[in-house]
Specification:
alpha+beta, two-stranded antiparallel sheet
Length: 193
């Protein structure tokens, strides 16, 4: 006796997948940078050195005086000698008034004073005298002033250019799945039963 059987017959479905790759490109624009550096400014102010030499005293020591200075010194010396002479004559006159004094004899004493001159001792003198030339010196001065200017920057940046073309995926059913069911060895039925 044959038992009824169920027969299953199936076919797998087939899918086709078509893939298109996406495209991506990036273009970067070079940035622009401008730098300007103004030159520095330098100002220099210079004061020259000054040397002053005064030889007036040295020339006077060598008796090479300016005419006005010579006149001034001779006038002063003459006035002093004049005063000394007047004072000496007054003193001598006072001594002569006392001539009646028996203990004194003023005339020979006055004569001895006027005739006798002091002896000069020899001495070495340096003409002109030491330190008669006077010097003064002022140093040179150097003043400078810097003016530094800051650099100026100008930068221009542009965003990168990005291009993108998306990929595509196409899915297609090449073969549909199928399932076939058969029943085998079924008893035959009569009509009307």
């Amino acid at each position: 006796m044959k038992l009824p059987q169920i027969r299953l017959e199936s076919e797998m479905g087939k899918i086709a997948v078509y893939l298109t790759q996406g495209k991506h490109s990036m273009h970067h624009v070079q940035p622009l940078l401008e730098i300007e550096q103004p030159p520095a400014e330098l100002e220099i102010e210079r004061t020259s050195a000054k040397l002053t030499i005064d030889q007036t005293k040295a020339w006077e020591d060598m008796n090479l005086k300016h005419v006005f200075r010579s006149i001034e010194e001779n006038t002063d010396h003459a006035q002093q000698e004049y005063r000394k002479g007047v004072a000496r004559r007054v003193d001598e006159g006072d001594e002569m008034m006392k001539i009646e004094d028996k203990n004194s004899n003023p005339i020979p004493e006055i004569a001895k004073r006027n005739i006798a001159r002091p002896l000069r001792t020899p001495n070495i003198t340096f003409i002109p005298s030491f330190f008669s030339v006077k010097m003064s010196y002022e140093k040179a001065k150097l003043d400078y002033n810097w003016k530094v200017h800051q650099p100026r920057f100008e930068a221009r940046f542009e965003s990168p250019v990005i291009e993108y073309e998306p990929g595509e995926v196409i899915v297609e059913m090449v073969r549909r799945p199928s399932l076939k069911i058969d029943v085998v060895n079924l008893p035959k039925r009569r009509l009307g039963e």
